[in-house]
Amino acid sequence: MSTNPLIAAYKKPAVYVALPSEGKWYDPKPKLSVDNELAIYPMSAKDELITKTPDALFNGEATVALIESCCPDIPNPRQMPVNDLLVVLLAIRQASYGNDLSVDIKCTECGHINQMAVDSNVLLSRVEENTTSPDIKLGNGFKVSVSPYNIQDRTRLQVQQVKQNQIVQGLMQAEQNGQQIEQAEFGKSFVEIAELTVELVSNCIVSVQTPEEGSSVIQDPALILEWIKTITRKDYDEIRDRVEKLSENNLDTMMNAECQECQAKYKTNIE
Questions:
Q1: Residue 206, number of CB atoms within 10 A of its CB
Q2: C-alpha dihedral, 69 to 74 to 77 to 83, nearest 10°
Q3: Helices and strands (DSSP H and E) totals, the chain
Q4: Mind listing the pLDDT tens digit for each residue in 62-98?
Q5: Domain count of the chain?
Q6: Residue 47 belongs to domain spanning
Q7: pLDDT surpassing 80 at residue 162
Q8: pLDDT class of 271 with cuts at 50, 70, 90
């Protein structure tokens, strides 16, 4: 927090929220309250301007800047596990604008767009505990400990996927126009995203232990990355699936809705 007495007197926590991760997997750890909750501060005018900047949103800098400002007790937002992100962003919105959350919902029967009011307190109270174990024992006896994706790694993957989609769309457009397609460029984009995906899964491996009794636990990132590039698809998928499972936010966003046009009742997911 700032040492400026004006800022210290003006900026106060508006919301306290329990993190789905319970503060695990941060480096360094966040400062939590005695109730194991994170203090959330309202957005400033500067924060709102940053969140509306397209480039900052695209590369993830807007999200990092927002967390730095509204969650000063998280020393390094880039290392935040992604399973905490939705809860924290929802809490920031609540701290800044109040509990009422207005969302547009499309009726599953007639297609009418309904405006639905949701209490963010209700959503935040529906965070379920993630009981997924971070420890895996592969069929060959290797013991692997993993963590969720963090914001930095997930953003890198999303940026790469957007670039890949742009390349694919450009190639499809060139083909429709009768232009020659650069197959090398097409193949290169898929190789790059495959390599990045493997690297990001490797980043989530905390340690690996070989099957031999009394063997040492390997935590060197370079050795783990080199190892994961040699394992079978079955073992890789098991590790990746566990990382994905740990990365789920466990926030139940399914709500009951009723169409204002046709009165149909249905369940909808608040996104």
A1: 16
A2: -120
A3: 10, 10
A4: 889 999 999 999 999 999 999 999 999 999 999 999 9
A5: 3
A6: 1-98
A7: no
A8: low
